[in-house]
Amino acid sequence: MTVSDGSNLLITVTPLDALGNPTTLQAVPTWNSSNTSILNPTVAADGLSATGIAQATGSVTITVTPQAPDTAAPGSVAIDVVAGQAVTLQLTVTVQPTPAS
To answer: What is the CATH number of the domain that holds 9?
Structure first.
């Protein structure tokens, strides 16, 4: 998934059983960001969602790991954060020395 820097993200977890049907977890899963300077999610109390702002460009992987007694495999998502489109122009004025004549 690719997003622009400054994007406000909502990441959700949906536990699924062996047949792909939604189910529940018995314990709150743990979340990990491979690079918290790019995205440091704030996790909800139930552990099933998190929000965060993409703060810098680069790649980050968010991994959610179930805790005992749950035996589901961890889930992860790779996110590439790219620079957003220009929204303003910055102008700089520099005084140059007068050329010698």
So the answer is: 2.60.40.3440
